[in-house]
Design goal:
The complex is a heterodimer of chains A (195) and B (266). Chain A has helices at residues 42-49, 91-96, 103-108, 125-136, 155-170, 182-188; strands spanning 2-9, 19-26, 31-35, 57-62, 74-77, 143-147, 174-178, 191-194. Chain A has a 5-stranded parallel β-sheet with strand order 5-6-7-3-8, with helices on both faces. In chain A, strands 2-1-4 form a 3-stranded antiparallel β-sheet, with helices on one face. Chain A has 6 helices and 8 strands. Chain B is α/β, with parallel strands linked by helices. Chain B has helices at residues 51-59, 81-87, 108-118, 125-134, 139-142, 151-163, 181-196, 208-212, 245-253, and strands at 4-16, 22-35, 40-44, 66-74, 77-78, 92-95, 169-173, 200-205, 217-222, 225-231. Chain B has a 6-stranded mixed β-sheet with strand order 6-7-8-3-9-10, sandwiched between helices. A 4-stranded antiparallel β-sheet of chain B has the order 2-1-4-5, with helices on one face. The chains are: A alpha/beta (195), B alpha/beta (266). The interface between A and B is medium-sized, with 30 and 34 residues.
């Protein structure tokens, strides 16, 4: 279980609190929807869970332990994958940062080998999001923080990506789906939490 | 005759292929459609598909290695550089996609006054205030620097700046990206209002579900080409009335509908 236990966060000792004593847990195989208006700290909570930020107080535990793995079993997927990829790296190197994917996984996500020698800006946003997802789906992955990952994509691409993730969830992947889109969360989430 | 008419518009970039040879990469190909006065047309396409390039081509703000083909007509006249100079800000205005199009070092009030000057209007404090009030912005917002505004306020500020010259054509580039449902609806309602006042509005967006409630017609793009132009009201039921299979695929893929990809690849 991925758990945030009474987590608070602010950017500095005098800055206002973005999150205050939040509790949230995600069980393996569960898709938890997280919704709420802009500015309530949804993405901040996602980054805390993925260990990109440290909580000001409270704690985040992965399967009852503090996170101490080499490949972080909690991966964070950004709304705009262009910000989560090095602009000077080719797609092949970006994917290899996570693992060396097998053809089955690669094809399932619709990632083409012909993209491998291109740079992030040379494929579309939808294609790059598939690349970012492929990178994250490494064998050590246990929880995925999906922060508005399909809000910039067209509806067909959105369905294709979520169908892959729903399948992964049935195999035990825990997912936090952050989205403004109530209709989407109702479709995919096992339960929806609002902050 | 449409107020804005695109006739076989293409946009590409030249890039070096090796050391000497240059090659043109086409991103948009043969786009033809029009926007009438009093009408809101939504241009829908995947992000990264070059929709913003079309907006930038209309307003002549593409980088220098861009190649624009075809013709763009505004109010029956072919848009060329001198005409564009006369029309921009006065008869046609762009609501850009991101805050980075505003001057980060200048308070919003002054940027509105600048836009007024460019459009040939001298604005006093009262007229700026009443303009901002129409977009739900107050004095505090006027005195803020762009980065101090929230996403929704910034979008409304850019719409207010675009509206300064009372243009006949408004092109809004992804005005709702990054906004929550309430702010998005607010921004789109403002654009709808402009169309209802007799302006031609082109809304560029990736979000079909958001656009449908406000658009009259929807131009669906796929891979840099125009797939079809649909009536917004035809996105209903199982999408039987839609002309193109791709538009139907987009419609049925929405989570509030079947949430199925239906074999369509994009």
């Amino acid at each position: 279980m991925l758990t945030a236990h009474r987590v608070s966060f602010r950017h500095g000792p005098r800055a206002p609190y973005i999150l205050r004593e939040v509790d949230l847990s995600i069980r393996p195989g569960e898709i938890v929807g997280l919704s709420g208006p802009s500015g309530r700290g949804k993405s901040t909570l996602g980054r805390l869970l993925a260990g990109h930020l440290g909580p000001t107080s409270g704690s985040v535990t992965v399967d009852e332990r503090a996170n101490q793995y080499r490949f972080n079993p909690v991966q964070y997927l950004h709304q705009s994958p262009i910000f989560a990829t090095d602009p000077r790296w080719r797609i092949s190197r970006i994917v290899a940062e996570g693992w060396t994917p097998d053809d089955v996984t690669r094809n399932e996500l619709g990632v083409k080998e012909s993209w491998y020698d291109r740079y992030p800006h040379e494929i579309s946003g939808g294609e790059l999001q598939r690349v970012a997802l492929l990178r994250a789906l490494a064998p050590g992955l246990r929880y995925l923080i999906a922060d508005e990952i399909t809000s910039m994509l067209d509806p067909v691409a959105q369905v294709e990506i979520w169908q892959v993730l729903l399948k992964r969830a049935r195999l035990g992947l825990g997912i936090l789906a952050i989205s403004h889109d109530q209709a989407l969360l109702e479709r995919i989430a096992t339960r929806v939490v609002t902050i | 005759m449409s107020f804005l008419r695109l006739d076989q518009v293409s946009v590409g970039f030249t890039r070096y292929d090796g050391l000497i040879r240059q090659r043109e990469f086409r991103i948009l190909e043969g786009l033809s459609f029009g926007v009438d006065r009093g009408e809101l047309v939504a241009l829908i396409g995947a992000s990264g598909g070059g929709k913003s390039l079309l907006a930038h081509a209309i307003f002549g703000i593409l980088p220098s290695n861009a190649v624009v083909g075809g013709r763009i007509h505004v109010d029956g006249t072919t848009l060329d550089a001198p005409l564009r100079q006369r029309y921009c800000g006065r008869r046609m205005a762009l609501v850009p996609q991101s805050l980075s199009h505003l001057d980060p070092m200048t308070r919003c009030r002054k940027q509105i006054a600048w836009a007024g000057q460019r459009a040939g209007h001298r604005l006093n404090a009262v007229s700026i205030e009443s303009l901002l009030a129409r977009y739900g912005l107050d004095d505090q917002a006027a005195n803020a620097f762009p980065h101090q505004l929230s996403g929704g306020m910034a979008r409304r500020m850019m719409m207010a700046i675009a509206a300064v010259g009372d243009p006949d054509l408004i092109v809004a580039d992804e005005p709702t990206s990054g906004l929550d449902g309430e702010n998005s609806a607010n921004v789109l309602a403002h654009l709808r209002e402009q169309a209802d006042c007799g302006k031609a509005v082109l809304l560029i967006t990736h979000s079909l579900s958001e656009a449908l409630a406000f658009a009259d017609r929807v131009a669906v793009m796929k891979g840099g080409r125009l797939e079809s132009i649909e009536a917004a009201s035809d996105f209903a039921g199982g999408g039987e009335a839609l002309r193109s299979p791709f538009a139907r695929a987009l419609w049925t893929a929405l989570p509030q509908n079947a949430f199925s990809a239906g074999g369509a690849i994009c």
